[in-house]
Fold this protein.
Amino acid sequence: MAHPDAVKPFRPWLKDNWNLVASFSEFGTGAPMPLFELIGNLPTRNFRDGSFPQVNKISAQTLKETIGTGMHGCFACPVRCKKAITVKGPYYVDSAYGGPEYETLAALGSNCGIDDLKAIAKGNELCSAYSIDTISTGSTIFFAMECFENGLLTTRDTDGIELKFGNAEAMLQIIELIGRREGIGDLLAEGSARAAEKIGNSARAFSMHAKKLEIPMHEPRLSKSLALGYMVNPHGADHCCNLIDIFFAAFGKESNVIVHDAVPLGIAPAPFEDIGPRKVALFRIVQLKRIIVDSLVLCMFLPYSYQQLAEVTSAATGWNTTTMEQLRVAERTLTMCRLFNVRHGLTADEDRLPPRFFKPTRYGPLGDTALDPEKMENAKRYYYSLMGWDSNGVPTPEKLEELGIE
Ligand code: SF4
Protein backbone atom coordinates (compact mmCIF):
# COMPACT_ATOMS: atom_id res chain seq x y z
CA MET A 1 0.00 0.00 0.00
CA ALA A 2 1.67 3.22 -1.19
CA HIS A 3 -0.40 5.69 0.86
CA PRO A 4 -2.44 3.89 3.57
CA ASP A 5 -3.69 7.13 5.09
CA ALA A 6 -5.25 8.11 1.77
CA VAL A 7 -7.16 4.82 1.58
CA LYS A 8 -8.57 4.87 5.12
CA PRO A 9 -11.29 7.50 4.47
CA PHE A 10 -12.90 5.19 1.90
CA ARG A 11 -14.05 2.75 4.56
CA PRO A 12 -16.26 5.20 6.54
CA TRP A 13 -17.39 6.66 3.23
CA LEU A 14 -18.53 3.22 2.11
CA LYS A 15 -20.40 2.77 5.39
CA ASP A 16 -22.11 6.15 4.94
CA ASN A 17 -23.01 5.45 1.33
CA TRP A 18 -24.66 2.14 1.76
CA ASN A 19 -28.05 3.37 0.58
CA LEU A 20 -27.25 1.78 -2.74
CA VAL A 21 -26.03 -1.43 -1.19
CA ALA A 22 -27.69 -1.48 2.24
CA SER A 23 -30.12 -4.26 1.38
CA PHE A 24 -27.15 -6.27 0.15
CA SER A 25 -25.90 -6.53 3.72
CA GLU A 26 -29.23 -7.96 4.80
CA PHE A 27 -30.38 -10.01 1.82
CA GLY A 28 -27.55 -10.12 -0.72
CA THR A 29 -28.61 -9.80 -4.35
CA GLY A 30 -32.23 -10.61 -5.13
CA ALA A 31 -33.96 -8.30 -2.63
CA PRO A 32 -35.81 -6.41 -5.42
CA MET A 33 -37.25 -9.59 -6.97
CA PRO A 34 -40.87 -8.76 -6.06
CA LEU A 35 -40.35 -5.32 -7.64
CA PHE A 36 -38.74 -6.94 -10.69
CA GLU A 37 -41.88 -9.05 -11.10
CA LEU A 38 -44.04 -5.91 -10.96
CA ILE A 39 -42.04 -3.94 -13.55
CA GLY A 40 -41.15 -6.84 -15.86
CA ASN A 41 -37.48 -7.37 -15.01
CA LEU A 42 -37.93 -10.96 -13.79
CA PRO A 43 -37.42 -13.26 -16.79
CA THR A 44 -39.85 -16.16 -16.83
CA ARG A 45 -39.85 -19.45 -18.80
CA ASN A 46 -37.07 -18.61 -21.21
CA PHE A 47 -37.81 -14.86 -21.37
CA ARG A 48 -41.16 -15.79 -22.90
CA ASP A 49 -43.98 -15.50 -20.39
CA GLY A 50 -43.27 -12.26 -18.51
CA SER A 51 -45.11 -13.12 -15.31
CA PHE A 52 -44.14 -15.26 -12.31
CA PRO A 53 -46.74 -14.80 -9.53
CA GLN A 54 -44.85 -17.24 -7.28
CA VAL A 55 -41.92 -14.81 -7.01
CA ASN A 56 -42.27 -14.53 -3.22
CA LYS A 57 -41.47 -18.24 -2.87
CA ILE A 58 -37.98 -17.72 -4.28
CA SER A 59 -37.06 -14.14 -3.34
CA ALA A 60 -34.00 -13.19 -1.30
CA GLN A 61 -36.31 -12.13 1.55
CA THR A 62 -37.91 -15.58 1.67
CA LEU A 63 -34.50 -17.19 1.52
CA LYS A 64 -33.41 -15.18 4.57
CA GLU A 65 -36.56 -16.11 6.49
CA THR A 66 -36.48 -19.82 5.65
CA ILE A 67 -33.06 -21.32 4.87
CA GLY A 68 -30.83 -18.31 5.61
CA THR A 69 -28.42 -18.46 8.55
CA GLY A 70 -26.58 -15.14 8.15
CA MET A 71 -24.30 -13.29 5.79
CA HIS A 72 -20.68 -13.75 4.74
CA GLY A 73 -18.42 -11.47 2.74
CA CYS A 74 -15.21 -11.15 0.84
CA PHE A 75 -12.08 -10.27 2.82
CA ALA A 76 -12.37 -6.94 4.65
CA CYS A 77 -15.55 -5.91 2.82
CA PRO A 78 -17.94 -3.91 5.03
CA VAL A 79 -20.97 -4.90 2.90
CA ARG A 80 -20.92 -8.72 3.32
CA CYS A 81 -23.46 -9.67 0.65
CA LYS A 82 -22.93 -13.46 0.58
CA LYS A 83 -25.84 -15.57 1.75
CA ALA A 84 -25.19 -18.34 4.27
CA ILE A 85 -27.77 -21.15 4.25
CA THR A 86 -28.63 -24.50 5.77
CA VAL A 87 -30.75 -27.03 3.87
CA LYS A 88 -31.10 -30.57 5.21
CA GLY A 89 -34.16 -31.82 3.39
CA PRO A 90 -35.61 -32.85 1.02
CA TYR A 91 -32.20 -32.08 -0.52
CA TYR A 92 -28.98 -31.87 1.43
CA VAL A 93 -27.04 -28.72 0.47
CA ASP A 94 -23.41 -28.34 1.53
CA SER A 95 -23.36 -24.98 3.35
CA ALA A 96 -19.80 -24.34 2.17
CA TYR A 97 -21.21 -23.28 -1.19
CA GLY A 98 -23.43 -20.55 0.27
CA GLY A 99 -26.85 -19.55 -1.03
CA PRO A 100 -27.98 -18.57 -4.53
CA GLU A 101 -27.47 -15.02 -5.82
CA TYR A 102 -30.16 -13.24 -7.81
CA GLU A 103 -28.92 -14.48 -11.18
CA THR A 104 -29.22 -18.07 -9.92
CA LEU A 105 -32.63 -17.52 -8.32
CA ALA A 106 -33.92 -16.38 -11.71
CA ALA A 107 -31.91 -18.73 -13.96
CA LEU A 108 -32.74 -21.92 -12.05
CA GLY A 109 -36.02 -20.48 -10.70
CA SER A 110 -38.43 -18.25 -12.62
CA ASN A 111 -36.85 -18.82 -16.02
CA CYS A 112 -37.21 -22.59 -15.52
CA GLY A 113 -40.72 -22.00 -14.11
CA ILE A 114 -39.50 -23.41 -10.76
CA ASP A 115 -40.66 -22.03 -7.40
CA ASP A 116 -38.88 -24.52 -5.12
CA LEU A 117 -36.26 -22.50 -3.24
CA LYS A 118 -34.51 -25.53 -1.75
CA ALA A 119 -34.16 -27.12 -5.18
CA ILE A 120 -32.66 -23.87 -6.49
CA ALA A 121 -30.21 -23.86 -3.56
CA LYS A 122 -29.28 -27.45 -4.43
CA GLY A 123 -28.82 -26.49 -8.09
CA ASN A 124 -26.59 -23.62 -6.99
CA GLU A 125 -24.47 -26.03 -4.95
CA LEU A 126 -24.18 -28.50 -7.84
CA CYS A 127 -23.14 -25.81 -10.34
CA SER A 128 -20.53 -24.52 -7.91
CA ALA A 129 -19.24 -28.01 -7.23
CA TYR A 130 -18.91 -28.69 -10.97
CA SER A 131 -17.49 -25.16 -11.52
CA ILE A 132 -20.14 -24.29 -14.09
CA ASP A 133 -21.83 -20.92 -14.32
CA THR A 134 -25.41 -20.82 -13.06
CA ILE A 135 -26.55 -18.31 -15.71
CA SER A 136 -25.37 -20.33 -18.70
CA THR A 137 -26.34 -23.63 -17.08
CA GLY A 138 -29.82 -22.43 -16.15
CA SER A 139 -30.29 -20.81 -19.57
CA THR A 140 -29.30 -23.98 -21.36
CA ILE A 141 -31.72 -25.96 -19.21
CA PHE A 142 -34.69 -23.66 -19.86
CA PHE A 143 -33.75 -23.63 -23.55
CA ALA A 144 -33.95 -27.44 -23.43
CA MET A 145 -37.26 -27.23 -21.55
CA GLU A 146 -38.75 -25.18 -24.39
CA CYS A 147 -37.34 -27.67 -26.93
CA PHE A 148 -39.00 -30.46 -24.92
CA GLU A 149 -42.28 -28.57 -24.79
CA ASN A 150 -42.18 -28.30 -28.60
CA GLY A 151 -41.21 -31.91 -29.25
CA LEU A 152 -37.66 -31.13 -30.43
CA LEU A 153 -36.38 -33.18 -27.50
CA THR A 154 -38.26 -36.17 -26.07
CA THR A 155 -37.77 -38.58 -23.20
CA ARG A 156 -35.78 -40.71 -25.66
CA ASP A 157 -33.17 -37.93 -25.74
CA THR A 158 -33.26 -37.25 -22.01
CA ASP A 159 -33.01 -40.83 -20.68
CA GLY A 160 -36.60 -40.61 -19.51
CA ILE A 161 -36.37 -37.23 -17.77
CA GLU A 162 -39.58 -35.21 -18.15
CA LEU A 163 -37.83 -31.95 -18.95
CA LYS A 164 -40.83 -29.71 -18.45
CA PHE A 165 -40.92 -26.13 -17.20
CA GLY A 166 -41.50 -26.25 -13.45
CA ASN A 167 -39.91 -29.68 -12.91
CA ALA A 168 -37.31 -29.02 -10.19
CA GLU A 169 -36.17 -32.64 -10.02
CA ALA A 170 -35.46 -32.61 -13.76
CA MET A 171 -33.46 -29.38 -13.44
CA LEU A 172 -31.23 -31.01 -10.82
CA GLN A 173 -30.81 -34.21 -12.83
CA ILE A 174 -29.78 -32.23 -15.91
CA ILE A 175 -27.18 -30.23 -13.95
CA GLU A 176 -25.65 -33.53 -12.81
CA LEU A 177 -25.59 -34.81 -16.39
CA ILE A 178 -24.03 -31.57 -17.68
CA GLY A 179 -21.42 -31.65 -14.93
CA ARG A 180 -20.45 -35.22 -15.85
CA ARG A 181 -21.09 -34.79 -19.61
CA GLU A 182 -23.28 -37.86 -19.62
CA GLY A 183 -26.29 -38.55 -21.85
CA ILE A 184 -27.97 -35.35 -22.97
CA GLY A 185 -25.62 -33.51 -20.60
CA ASP A 186 -22.84 -33.95 -23.15
CA LEU A 187 -24.83 -31.93 -25.70
CA LEU A 188 -26.07 -29.31 -23.23
CA ALA A 189 -22.60 -28.80 -21.73
CA GLU A 190 -21.73 -26.95 -24.95
CA GLY A 191 -24.27 -24.23 -24.11
CA SER A 192 -27.60 -23.43 -25.71
CA ALA A 193 -26.28 -21.92 -28.98
CA ARG A 194 -24.23 -24.96 -29.99
CA ALA A 195 -26.89 -27.36 -28.71
CA ALA A 196 -29.47 -25.53 -30.86
CA GLU A 197 -27.30 -25.97 -33.95
CA LYS A 198 -27.16 -29.71 -33.34
CA ILE A 199 -30.83 -30.12 -32.49
CA GLY A 200 -31.79 -28.08 -35.58
CA ASN A 201 -35.29 -27.17 -36.75
CA SER A 202 -36.75 -24.35 -34.67
CA ALA A 203 -34.38 -24.89 -31.70
CA ARG A 204 -32.35 -21.81 -32.64
CA ALA A 205 -35.35 -19.63 -31.81
CA PHE A 206 -35.24 -20.89 -28.22
CA SER A 207 -31.56 -20.13 -27.55
CA MET A 208 -31.29 -16.76 -25.80
CA HIS A 209 -27.67 -15.73 -26.36
CA ALA A 210 -25.42 -13.03 -27.82
CA LYS A 211 -22.13 -14.25 -29.29
CA LYS A 212 -22.98 -17.67 -27.83
CA LEU A 213 -23.06 -16.33 -24.26
CA GLU A 214 -26.44 -16.76 -22.60
CA ILE A 215 -28.46 -13.64 -21.71
CA PRO A 216 -28.28 -12.75 -17.98
CA MET A 217 -31.36 -12.32 -15.80
CA HIS A 218 -32.17 -8.67 -16.56
CA GLU A 219 -34.75 -7.92 -19.22
CA PRO A 220 -33.42 -6.21 -22.35
CA ARG A 221 -36.98 -5.30 -23.42
CA LEU A 222 -37.19 -3.11 -20.30
CA SER A 223 -33.64 -1.67 -20.16
CA LYS A 224 -32.65 -0.46 -23.61
CA SER A 225 -29.01 0.39 -23.02
CA LEU A 226 -28.60 -2.94 -21.24
CA ALA A 227 -29.88 -4.48 -24.47
CA LEU A 228 -27.28 -2.52 -26.44
CA GLY A 229 -24.59 -3.74 -24.07
CA TYR A 230 -25.68 -7.36 -24.54
CA MET A 231 -25.32 -6.76 -28.30
CA VAL A 232 -21.93 -5.07 -28.47
CA ASN A 233 -19.97 -6.49 -25.53
CA PRO A 234 -16.93 -8.25 -26.99
CA HIS A 235 -17.54 -11.41 -24.98
CA GLY A 236 -21.31 -11.48 -25.50
CA ALA A 237 -24.26 -10.81 -23.21
CA ASP A 238 -22.93 -9.64 -19.86
CA HIS A 239 -24.84 -7.55 -17.33
CA CYS A 240 -21.70 -6.71 -15.36
CA CYS A 241 -20.01 -4.82 -18.26
CA ASN A 242 -23.12 -2.79 -18.72
CA LEU A 243 -25.52 -0.05 -17.73
CA ILE A 244 -28.61 -1.66 -16.20
CA ASP A 245 -31.04 1.20 -16.85
CA ILE A 246 -33.42 0.45 -14.00
CA PHE A 247 -30.66 0.73 -11.40
CA PHE A 248 -29.82 4.27 -12.48
CA ALA A 249 -33.35 5.51 -13.01
CA ALA A 250 -34.56 8.38 -10.85
CA PHE A 251 -38.20 7.30 -10.89
CA GLY A 252 -40.53 10.14 -10.07
CA LYS A 253 -37.74 12.69 -10.18
CA GLU A 254 -36.73 14.82 -13.12
CA SER A 255 -39.25 13.09 -15.38
CA ASN A 256 -37.90 9.58 -15.24
CA VAL A 257 -34.32 10.01 -16.33
CA ILE A 258 -31.22 7.89 -16.05
CA VAL A 259 -28.69 9.70 -13.91
CA HIS A 260 -25.14 8.72 -13.19
CA ASP A 261 -21.94 10.05 -11.74
CA ALA A 262 -20.66 10.61 -15.29
CA VAL A 263 -22.45 13.97 -15.25
CA PRO A 264 -19.28 15.77 -13.98
CA LEU A 265 -17.52 14.33 -17.05
CA GLY A 266 -19.95 16.18 -19.30
CA ILE A 267 -22.23 13.22 -20.00
CA ALA A 268 -25.87 14.29 -19.82
CA PRO A 269 -28.67 12.33 -18.10
CA ALA A 270 -31.01 10.56 -20.53
CA PRO A 271 -34.69 9.58 -20.51
CA PHE A 272 -35.31 6.07 -19.19
CA GLU A 273 -37.09 4.79 -22.32
CA ASP A 274 -34.59 6.41 -24.68
CA ILE A 275 -31.96 4.64 -26.75
CA GLY A 276 -30.86 7.71 -28.71
CA PRO A 277 -27.41 9.33 -28.81
CA ARG A 278 -27.49 10.68 -25.22
CA LYS A 279 -28.29 7.25 -23.82
CA VAL A 280 -25.67 5.58 -25.99
CA ALA A 281 -23.04 8.04 -24.74
CA LEU A 282 -24.09 7.28 -21.16
CA PHE A 283 -23.92 3.55 -21.83
CA ARG A 284 -20.43 3.88 -23.32
CA ILE A 285 -18.99 5.78 -20.36
CA VAL A 286 -20.49 3.26 -17.90
CA GLN A 287 -19.13 0.38 -19.98
CA LEU A 288 -15.66 1.95 -19.77
CA LYS A 289 -16.07 2.39 -16.01
CA ARG A 290 -16.91 -1.30 -15.64
CA ILE A 291 -13.68 -2.14 -17.43
CA ILE A 292 -11.75 0.11 -15.03
CA VAL A 293 -13.39 -1.64 -12.05
CA ASP A 294 -12.64 -5.09 -13.50
CA SER A 295 -9.06 -4.16 -14.32
CA LEU A 296 -8.51 -2.96 -10.75
CA VAL A 297 -10.11 -6.20 -9.44
CA LEU A 298 -12.64 -4.15 -7.46
CA CYS A 299 -16.16 -5.28 -6.63
CA MET A 300 -18.74 -3.70 -8.93
CA PHE A 301 -21.23 -3.37 -6.07
CA LEU A 302 -19.20 -0.70 -4.27
CA PRO A 303 -20.42 2.71 -5.45
CA TYR A 304 -17.09 4.40 -6.24
CA SER A 305 -17.30 7.43 -8.54
CA TYR A 306 -14.95 7.82 -11.50
CA GLN A 307 -12.88 10.28 -9.45
CA GLN A 308 -12.69 7.93 -6.47
CA LEU A 309 -11.51 5.06 -8.67
CA ALA A 310 -8.53 7.18 -9.70
CA GLU A 311 -7.92 8.28 -6.09
CA VAL A 312 -8.02 4.77 -4.64
CA THR A 313 -5.72 3.49 -7.41
CA SER A 314 -3.21 6.26 -6.70
CA ALA A 315 -3.38 5.66 -2.95
CA ALA A 316 -2.94 1.90 -3.25
CA THR A 317 -0.25 1.81 -5.95
CA GLY A 318 1.53 5.17 -5.86
CA TRP A 319 0.71 5.56 -9.58
CA ASN A 320 -0.58 9.10 -9.74
CA THR A 321 -3.33 8.38 -12.21
CA THR A 322 -6.42 10.36 -13.26
CA THR A 323 -9.95 9.60 -14.45
CA MET A 324 -9.05 10.57 -18.01
CA GLU A 325 -6.07 8.23 -18.02
CA GLN A 326 -8.14 5.35 -16.64
CA LEU A 327 -10.87 5.93 -19.21
CA ARG A 328 -8.24 5.87 -21.93
CA VAL A 329 -6.85 2.56 -20.61
CA ALA A 330 -10.39 1.13 -20.65
CA GLU A 331 -10.94 2.36 -24.21
CA ARG A 332 -7.74 0.67 -25.28
CA THR A 333 -8.82 -2.56 -23.54
CA LEU A 334 -12.19 -2.55 -25.28
CA THR A 335 -10.62 -1.80 -28.65
CA MET A 336 -8.12 -4.62 -28.21
CA CYS A 337 -11.00 -7.00 -27.42
CA ARG A 338 -12.73 -5.81 -30.58
CA LEU A 339 -9.61 -6.39 -32.65
CA PHE A 340 -9.35 -9.91 -31.21
CA ASN A 341 -12.91 -10.62 -32.33
CA VAL A 342 -12.30 -9.12 -35.79
CA ARG A 343 -9.24 -11.33 -36.19
CA HIS A 344 -11.40 -14.35 -35.35
CA GLY A 345 -13.99 -13.46 -37.97
CA LEU A 346 -16.70 -11.77 -35.90
CA THR A 347 -18.51 -8.97 -37.71
CA ALA A 348 -21.22 -6.41 -36.97
CA ASP A 349 -23.69 -9.21 -37.68
CA GLU A 350 -22.75 -10.85 -34.39
CA ASP A 351 -23.68 -7.67 -32.46
CA ARG A 352 -27.30 -8.71 -32.23
CA LEU A 353 -29.96 -10.08 -29.89
CA PRO A 354 -32.30 -13.06 -30.34
CA PRO A 355 -35.50 -12.18 -32.27
CA ARG A 356 -37.61 -12.99 -29.18
CA PHE A 357 -36.69 -9.64 -27.59
CA PHE A 358 -38.22 -7.76 -30.51
CA LYS A 359 -41.63 -9.11 -29.53
CA PRO A 360 -43.51 -8.54 -26.25
CA THR A 361 -43.76 -11.19 -23.56
CA ARG A 362 -46.89 -13.34 -23.52
CA TYR A 363 -48.24 -11.78 -20.32
CA GLY A 364 -47.22 -9.36 -17.60
CA PRO A 365 -45.89 -5.80 -17.55
CA LEU A 366 -43.98 -6.24 -20.84
CA GLY A 367 -46.99 -7.71 -22.63
CA ASP A 368 -47.00 -4.68 -24.90
CA THR A 369 -43.29 -3.79 -24.82
CA ALA A 370 -40.53 -4.92 -27.14
CA LEU A 371 -37.27 -3.65 -28.57
CA ASP A 372 -37.50 -1.64 -31.79
CA PRO A 373 -35.09 -3.20 -34.33
CA GLU A 374 -34.45 0.08 -36.15
CA LYS A 375 -33.72 2.02 -32.97
CA MET A 376 -31.38 -0.70 -31.71
CA GLU A 377 -29.54 -0.78 -35.04
CA ASN A 378 -29.17 3.02 -34.97
CA ALA A 379 -27.89 2.84 -31.39
CA LYS A 380 -25.32 0.24 -32.40
CA ARG A 381 -24.10 2.39 -35.31
CA TYR A 382 -23.84 5.46 -33.08
CA TYR A 383 -21.91 3.44 -30.49
CA TYR A 384 -19.46 2.35 -33.21
CA SER A 385 -18.92 5.98 -34.18
CA LEU A 386 -18.30 7.01 -30.55
CA MET A 387 -15.75 4.21 -30.25
CA GLY A 388 -13.98 5.22 -33.47
CA TRP A 389 -15.04 2.03 -35.24
CA ASP A 390 -16.26 1.94 -38.84
CA SER A 391 -19.75 0.92 -39.94
CA ASN A 392 -18.70 -2.75 -39.81
CA GLY A 393 -17.60 -2.34 -36.21
CA VAL A 394 -13.90 -2.44 -37.08
CA PRO A 395 -11.60 0.03 -35.26
CA THR A 396 -10.28 2.58 -37.75
CA PRO A 397 -6.51 2.98 -38.35
CA GLU A 398 -6.81 6.55 -37.03
CA LYS A 399 -8.35 5.31 -33.76
CA LEU A 400 -5.64 2.70 -33.35
CA GLU A 401 -2.97 5.33 -33.85
CA GLU A 402 -4.65 7.66 -31.37
CA LEU A 403 -4.75 4.91 -28.74
CA GLY A 404 -1.16 3.90 -29.38
CA ILE A 405 -2.13 0.38 -30.51
CA GLU A 406 0.38 -0.74 -33.12
S1 SF4 B 1 -16.67 -7.41 -2.07
FE1 SF4 B 1 -18.59 -7.25 -3.25
S2 SF4 B 1 -19.23 -9.40 -3.58
FE2 SF4 B 1 -17.73 -9.40 -1.88
S3 SF4 B 1 -18.99 -9.22 0.00
FE3 SF4 B 1 -18.38 -7.15 -0.61
S4 SF4 B 1 -20.10 -6.35 -1.85
FE4 SF4 B 1 -20.30 -8.61 -1.74
